[in-house]
Structure to design on (296 residues):
């Protein structure tokens, strides 16, 4: 289940995934690259052998030829104690041979904390004959607070998987949903990844009740931002244009947080461009009144 969730996430947003999970490689010109998913099932030496399957291998090429292609190997690991650096090394060596390249970057996304082997060294007392390590992204060791305003959709969707204090649980859940709505304009992907957020947030019935009370309208008419998206009129609005839909959703958020909004402020939101609305959504957590937010 987790493997499939992250495979979909990475393949839907490959550039954002590499920018977040492989930030240490600092690929400044990634926007100009072509990213090609590679077959996951590796070729067998003999047909009766078991095959090794990768989570998501991505080949990054630059059409202008200014940079040599790089192969990124992304693995999601749910149970850290089951991670095998030997298996990952096999994967990378197989790919390097298959693709005839030594430019291979292994990345492991750890969903939970735990002990694991970070480096592999083969050799004797005097010499090392093979040394292997990998980039790691320990989601539970990242502070959700540091990414709650990120414009990288991978970071925002994974807020529930990061570290936060117990009292921050609902604000972080809200920030993840808000990030999805403001960054992703495709309604199909919005519906798809609201499920991702809900799955990893795993709110209890009590928490959902508190969320409806404190983050949505006081009457508790909406079960969450997912319900907003499922309203037929708003879904059509997404398809007609991002600005109109953004203003509708933002007005709902304003009313949910601050209660009634005067007509002057409503008109200001309706005439604002999508970029200004996106800026307001990033500041909504710190504002104490709608006037402070919109007139500040």
């Amino acid at each position: 289940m987790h493997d499939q969730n992250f495979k979909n996430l990475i393949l839907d947003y490959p550039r954002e995934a590499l920018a977040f999970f492989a930030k240490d490689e600092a690929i400044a010109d990634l926007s100009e690259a072509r990213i090609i998913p590679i077959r996951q099932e590796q070729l067998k030496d003999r047909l009766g052998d078991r095959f090794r399957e990768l989570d998501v291998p991505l080949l990054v090429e630059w059409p202008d030829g200014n940079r040599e292609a790089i192969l990124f190997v992304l693995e999601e690991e749910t149970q850290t104690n089951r991670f095998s650096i030997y298996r990952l090394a096999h994967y990378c060596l197989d790919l390097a041979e298959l693709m005839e390249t030594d430019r291979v970057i292994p990345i492991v996304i750890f969903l939970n904390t735990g002990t694991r082997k970070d480096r592999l060294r083969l050799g004797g007392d005097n010499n090392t004959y093979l040394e292997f390590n990998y980039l790691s992204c320990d989601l539970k060791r990242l502070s959700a607070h540091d990414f709650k305003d990120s414009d990288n959709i991978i970071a925002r969707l994974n807020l529930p998987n990061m570290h936060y204090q117990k009292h921050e649980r609902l604000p972080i859940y809200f920030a993840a949903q808000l990030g999805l709505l403001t960054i992703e304009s495709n309604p199909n992907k919005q519906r798809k990844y609201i499920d991702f957020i809900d799955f990893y947030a795993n709110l209890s019935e009590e928490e959902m009740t508190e969320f409806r009370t404190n983050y949505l309208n006081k009457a508790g008419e909406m079960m969450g931002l997912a319900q907003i998206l499922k309203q037929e009129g708003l879904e059509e609005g997404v398809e007609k244009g991002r600005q109109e839909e953004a203003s509708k959703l933002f007005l709902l958020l304003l009313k949910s947080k601050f209660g009634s909004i005067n007509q002057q402020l409503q008109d200001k939101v309706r005439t604002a461009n999508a970029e200004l609305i996106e800026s307001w959504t990033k500041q909504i957590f710190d504002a104490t009144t709608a006037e402070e937010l919109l007139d500040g």
